[in-house]
Structure formats: C-alpha cells, structure tokens
Amino acid sequence: MQSEEDISTGVFFSCAVSATRIRGTGRVEHEASSADAAGVAKKVILAEPRGFCAGVRRAITVVEEALRIHGPPVYVRKEIVHNHRVVAELSRRGVVFVDSEDEVPEGAVCIFSAHGVAPQVRRNAEARRLDVIDATCPLVTKVHQEARRFADAGRSIVLIGHREHEEVEGTYGEAPHEITIVEKAEDVARLELPGTAPLAFLTQTTLSVDETEDIVQALRRRYPSIVAPGTGDICYASQNRQDAVKAVAARSDLVLVVGSRNSSNSLRMVEVARSLGVPAYLVPEAEALDEGWLDGVRTVGVSSGASAPEVLVEELLGRLGRLGYLEIETARTAVEDVVFKPPAQLSAGRAARVPEE
C-alpha cells in the first residue's frame, strides 16, 4: 500500500540520470572522466533542500487522489502549483485547469490551488453547487486566519507581497477594506494610515525573512506599535531554499535554478545568487540551458524552486553530465521533515476504496 508521501512520487520525482551510479555519500560516480582538456575537474554542487515543499506535495497529492476517486475530468482553479511540467502532466491525465470557478460545470469537482482563494470565490463555488476540494497550503490558510483575526480586532493590515500573485489576491479578499498591499520598502512612506491607528502586518508565505526585512523595518520605524504575525506563519521552504542557494553560490562559478518563469520563489533564488556576485539563471527545462553560460565554468551550483519536480533537476544533471560536469556533490544546509495531511474528504475516500489484490 502506498503511503501518503508516496502518492505523488511517480512521474514527478523519478528519472534516471544517464551513466551515473548514486552512492550513499551524496556523490555520484560517473563512468567517464570529470576533468576537462586541461585536467581540471568539472563538477556540480547540488543544493539540499531543493524542489517540492510540503505544501506543493500535498496539493499534487490532492489532485491525484481526486482523479483516483472521481475519475476525469477534475477541474482545478488556476494552476495547482506554478510549474509547467506538473500542469502539463496532470492535464494529460484528465485535469482541466480554469481561470475562474465560473468556468466549471455546475456540480463538478473543483480543486482550489495551493495558493488559496478569497471568500468570494468560495461563495461563488457554493452557489454553483461545485464539489470543492481545498488544496490550499496550510501555511497560507494560517495567514488567512490571521487576516480575519486582525480585522475582527479592528486593526488595519499591511500585507507584504506581490500584488498580482494569487496568494496575495486570496489573502486580500479576507478583509479587503482593512488590507493595504505593500510590495517594497519605498511604499511604506506613501501609506495613508494614521500613526496612531491600530495596525498589523502579514506577509506572502513564499517570501523569505530576508526578502521582507527591509519592509518590516520601515514599517516598524513609521509605526512602532505595529503588530507582527506569529512566527509560525513564515514559510520554512522559501527560507531554506534561499539559504541553500547562498551556500552553493559561495562555492560555484555559476548557479542554475530549475523552475518555471511564473514561479516567484524560483525567480527569487536566482536573484539571491546574483546578489552574491555569482552569475545565475532560471532553467525551466534542461533544453533551456545555454552552453555559452558554461564558458570557463568549472563548478556549477544547481537548485530548484519549491514547485519544481525533481525529474527536471535530473534531466538538467543529465545534460550537464554530457557536457563534462560528471562529479556531483550534495550540499545540505537543512533537513526538512514537514508533512501536511490531505483534506479529510480525500482521506475518507481513500479509506472507502477496496484494496487491490
């Protein structure tokens, strides 16, 4: 029997890297030499942690279980996670991605993405009698709860995040009359909130502590009594992946981050590496690697965003191997053991199925 953690490991997590033998030491031994024509070793340093976070794993599990229980088509509002390969594979298996719940046939199964939705979306879905399954990341749900709690207490709320991001749209919808969105530290000076007003701030979960520090400090200087959210609201995954990229960048001539162009956390990882003076690029697919980037490069750092499946990393490693980067070292900066349970209705559906003989 598959465990909850095994459900979404098939097509998204496994892909053999050509001509490699993986050792328990975290290195990969290749049959070919890993030295260039001058005899200098060429290697890859692989960041750990990288790739899927617990919220993404849970969201993909939700969709796969919904397909098993209900059969296709299953509708998903927006992309379940921001990765083109995940969306394409699920589409192939009968998932229909829509921009609005209004596009879902009445009474059909509709899954809300990991980024969460505003209350109005839930009301619309209820009016259309949709069979809703909520794949919202539990960390996002906590921010929604904080927004309601602050609003109920009579506080105005400053929401730190990207205005067009789906998560921010959902959080804003919890208290639209109380929330003001701030994207950068310079925005704080333009806030039209009285200094004596009871205030609180919240942050987009996919932003790390480093990303929001300047904005938070600007808020505290202007509004000394502003209330902060609980420390448990911070997404561990974004911070861990950025810390890992920093560690890898310090030892690399070039950093490659695997992720889709609409993945904000993947894009930020590229920015983090560049801020350390290391050339860095986003690589949505192995084919997107520009061999010109590798001129004079002996050590390549590789990581992936929180919504990027491991299969994409392995495909990139395979291409790098064919280009002579045959030695692979794993650099671990943190251990992640967070697991989020699936929604109750899916757990019940799984329990009700008759096991195969």
Report on this structure.
The chain is α/β, with parallel strands linked by helices. The protein has helices at residues 10-13, 54-70, 84-92, 119-127, 138-152, 166-172, 209-222, 236-249, 264-275, 310-322, 344-352, and strands at 20-22, 28-30, 43-48, 74-77, 95-98, 109-112, 131-134, 156-160, 179-182, 199-203, 254-258, 280-283, 299-304, 327-332. α5 (138-152) runs parallel beside α6 and α8 (236-249) packs parallel to α9. The protein is flat.
Give a quick set of tags describing it.
357 residues; alpha/beta; Cobalt-precorrin-4 Transmethylase, domain 1; Rossmann fold; 3 domains; 5-stranded parallel β-sheet; 4-stranded parallel β-sheet; 14 strands; 34% helix; flat; disordered N terminus; disordered C terminus
Overview in brief:
Helix content is 34%, strand content 18%. By secondary structure, it is an alpha/beta fold. Its EC number is 1.17.7.4.
Outline the secondary-structure elements.
Elements: H1 10-13, E1 20-22, E2 28-30, E3 43-48, H2 54-70, E4 74-77, H3 84-92, E5 95-98, E6 109-112, H4 119-127, E7 131-134, H5 138-152, E8 156-160, H6 166-172, E9 179-182, E10 199-203, H7 209-222, H8 236-249, E11 254-258, H9 264-275, E12 280-283, E13 299-304, H10 310-322, E14 327-332, H11 344-352
Helix pairs in contact: 5-6, 8-9
